[in-house]
């Protein structure tokens, strides 16, 4: 049974993809196995380097919170987010306005074209 | 027996809704057995309907007639009774709703166990299932409106189920306010068509629909209200609130309920309006709404740190893919060459994505519920290192996240790929927006995975353990389906998406199933 789907411009077969993924993984592991092998478990090599300071015991002290992730992206898109925040005012009357405005625009477009 | 399946499909959840208070009074064990049995029977019924319809058969059932197949009583020019009509697309939709309903019920048995008021919960749950199934099964517009209202009213109750939380009440109130105005608009649209054509049956209306100002305004009403119900930008603001405040088992089902509205929109555009010239404008409106929903939905998702709100915004973005795909299909509907070249592929991609979306988004909401159940918070800032204590949830989250992000070889990749390649033929900017959305979706789920599951364990989360078996079973069912569709997409595309898309463009077949060749 063919496992291929066609789009008219190309094809996709998950099993062929998996096969090539497996071949690539085999090569990757082969190259890794030829690398340095001086790692020893349970030695100081295992210790976390924390800029020379003692590593905090609670994970909360060493993790980056979700609200800080992609800080740079948010900063770069600040004008867009300012507009989107304004749009999501939490006010039901505003949301009703967006709905009615969208309906009015769709109606106009339907009538014009 | 098989002939009565459409009626049975609706009788099971409505029976479940009204018998739930009685079953709940018989003790916890019997309550759970009742809840799961009714959900399972509904799923079995939906599978049987799906198997019949995907073979190309259109199921028609007339309620209240002396013969259930008598669509046109003697002397009548148009159907007058409540008629259920289901083709391959309807069959797929009821399957999606029934799977989500069963997975949500499996999950909720443990998830809701510590709360009171479960008889009301189960009643509302089955009413929500009834509303969604009815929207996909009905063949007439007034009953579509009735089922929309049933599902809406059940949604208000379930969104505000934790009524001691002000956020739940607020979410439910906002949704109710917006939804009631929308329902009014829907009723006006149906009434307008009835006033002009003296019929409410979709097939009968499709056989006589003209192109006029009135019909265009009515189409605008349908697009606005149904796009609002499925969460299209900029009418989406209710969705993250409702999805995040409803219990997670319900949110899993709400995803499919919003897809029932999407189904209604497609039924109106493809079956009722068909090759009506108004549909060209409608197609561009759908494409525009789709692109806006994809982009703005994912942009809002990236910055969220409440895991359920984040997933709620992703719902808006995923609906955008479907609107884009079906918009492309609608655009080519009047041109057989374009339809064959890329329009039909876009429709197959959209329908494939619809199924995928119901599965992976349902799964992701269940994993979010599992996180909330285990940690007592939805705030990703307070989570970390949970992969060690919740290994099963972690694996299933990864499956859902990889699928929604369109990572090969998962199912989301195949459906998005069909959409990229077909929408490219209309304009190259369309797949660019879709690809950008996909990249941001991946970034967003990498954030969730890194902050909730990876990293050092937090002392405050030391007592966290894996969630109970029932909840894992609910997530496991959806995970298995996602993996199956991921590795064997051809079975779904040729056996399900193809007949569903064919059913949708076969306006004459839909009309003839009710009017018996009278057109």
Characterization of this structure:
The complex is a heterodimer of chains A (113) and B (519). Chain A has 113 residues and is mainly α. Chain A has four helices and two strands; from the N terminus they run E-E-H-H-H-H. Chain A has a two-stranded antiparallel ribbon. Chain B has one domain (2-515). Chain B has helices at residues 5-24, 28-54, 88-111, 118-137, 141-159, 166-197, 202-208, 213-229, 238-245, 248-273, 278-302, 307-331, 336-375, 386-389, 391-404, 411-423, 429-453, 469-487, 489-505, 507-515, and strands at residues 59-62, 83-86. In chain B, strands 1-2 form a two-stranded antiparallel sheet. The model of chain B has no long low-confidence stretch (mean pLDDT 95). Chains A and B meet through helix 1, helix 3 and helix 4 of A and helix 6, helix 8, helix 11, helix 13 and helix 16 of B.
Features of the shown structure:
heterodimer, A: 113 residues, mainly alpha, two-stranded antiparallel sheet, 4 helices, 2 strands, 50% helix, B: 519 residues, two-stranded antiparallel ribbon, 75% helix, 2% strand, globular
Q: Quick gist of this model?
A:
The complex is a heterodimer of chains A (113) and B (519). By secondary structure, chain A is mainly α.
Helix content of chain A: 40-55%
Shape of chain A: flat
What is the CA–CA distance across the termini of chain B?
30 Å
The sequence of SSEs of chain A as H and E is: EEHHHH
SS field, number of helical segments of chain B: 20
Strand content of chain A: 5-15%
Return the average pLDDT of chain B rounded to an integer: 95
Mean of pLDDT of chain A: 92
Backbone CA Rg of chain B: 22 Å
Radius of gyration of chain A: 27 Å
Q: Gap between N and C termini of chain A, in Å? A: 47 Å
Strand order of the largest sheet of chain B: 1-2
Low-confidence stretches of chain B: none
Structural class of chain B: mainly alpha
Number of domains of chain B: 1
Count of distinct strands of chain B: 2
Determine the oligomeric state from the structure. heterodimer
